[in-house]
């Protein structure tokens, strides 16, 4: 059993990676990470993610509008996402959801944008790639109302408490774990909660270039996270679960392939 890994959350279109995307992918592959889901956060960003996926074997994309960008959502947005979703590289709708922590977009616009993308995901029978911060109740209510129409859903970068986790699991959702689990200031609770996640619903991600694992040693000179650090997250997750790294790597890779329809 090898330790080939799938990173289900890479913001490769970020300005942090501009002009050296190939180097980032190469470092990841050298570290044993050879499949990547590139996250789209608005229409132009989704296009860029799709183009990068076309250019790089093992890369796939999402198409959607992040709650931070919900203010850009208009009458044409759904048709644009629908068209992008016809590309074979697109494996999910999103990143979509609610973020009432920063409120970069008004909450009402976030709700409208979120609900529309959930409806579209149900129509297209594509999974939804979800973001939630400080908005659990309205987020949960909308997912619950439409869950029977959705083929699959993942809570990207889960950082919540046990009550939230159990609510999402009751809706048969997948859970994405990032380097937040490595953060001794705010992520230690995840080392206990992760044991509640069924093995077939756990997936791993870096959310690069964000959330670089704080326990990386030696500390990288750059503050940018990269998918090449996913093996470190695997190590912490495996230790928390009391399982061998190879077992967790294989299970989470299988989960990602099934969830995103990756052959």
Number of strands: 8
End-to-end CA span:
19 Å
Order of helices and strands: EHEHEHEHEHEHEHEHH
Radius of gyration: 17 Å
Principal-axis shape equals: globular
The helix content, as a percent range, equals: 25-40%
Give your account of this protein's structure.
38% of the residues lie in helices and 16% in strands. It has nine helices and eight strands. The chain has helices at residues 21-30, 43-55, 77-84, 107-124, 136-146, 162-170, 190-193, 230-241, 245-260, and strands at residues 5-10, 33-38, 59-63, 90-99, 128-133, 153-155, 174-177, 202-204. It has an eight-stranded parallel β-sheet with strand order 1-2-3-4-5-6-7-8. β7, α7 and β8 form a beta-alpha-beta unit. α2 runs parallel beside α3 and α8 packs across α9. The protein is globular, with a radius of gyration of 17 Å. The model has no long low-confidence stretch (mean pLDDT 96).
Features:
263 residues, 8-stranded parallel β-sheet, single chain, 9 helices, globular, alpha/beta
Chain-wise SSE layout:
Layout: E1 5-10, H1 21-30, E2 33-38, H2 43-55, E3 59-63, H3 77-84, E4 90-99, H4 107-124, E5 128-133, H5 136-146, E6 153-155, H6 162-170, E7 174-177, H7 190-193, E8 202-204, H8 230-241, H9 245-260
Parallel strand pairs: 1-2, 2-3, 3-4, 4-5, 5-6, 6-7, 7-8
């Amino acid at each position: 059993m090898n330790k080939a890994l799938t990173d289900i959350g890479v913001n490769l279109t970020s300005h942090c990676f501009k002009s050296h995307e190939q180097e980032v992918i190469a470092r990841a592959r050298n570290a044993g990470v050879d499949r990547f889901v590139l996250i789209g956060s608005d229409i132009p960003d989704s296009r860029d993610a799709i183009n990068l996926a076309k250019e790089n074997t093992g890369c796939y994309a999402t198409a959607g509008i992040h709650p931070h960008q919900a203010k850009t959502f208009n009458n044409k947005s759904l048709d644009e996402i629908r068209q992008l979703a016809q590309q074979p590289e697109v494996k999910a709708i999103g990143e979509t959801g609610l973020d009432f922590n920063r409120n970069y977009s008004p909450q009402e616009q976030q709700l409208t944008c979120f609900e529309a993308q959930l409806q579209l995901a149900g129509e297209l029978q594509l999974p939804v790639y979800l973001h939630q911060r400080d908005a659990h109740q309205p987020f949960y209510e909308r997912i619950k109302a439409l869950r029977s129409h959705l083929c699959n859903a993942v809570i990207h970068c889960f950082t919540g408490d046990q009550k939230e986790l159990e609510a999402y699991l009751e809706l048969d959702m997948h859970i994405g774990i990032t380097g937040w689990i490595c953060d001794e200031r705010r992520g230690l609770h995840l080392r206990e909660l992760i044991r509640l996640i069924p093995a077939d619903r756990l997936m791993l991600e870096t959310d690069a270039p964000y959330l670089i694992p704080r326990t990386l040693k030696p500390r990288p000179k750059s503050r940018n996270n990269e998918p090449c650090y996913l093996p470190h997250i695997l190590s912490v997750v495996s230790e928390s679960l009391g399982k061998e790294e190879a077992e967790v790597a294989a299970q989470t890779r299988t989960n990602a392939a099934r969830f995103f329809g990756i052959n």
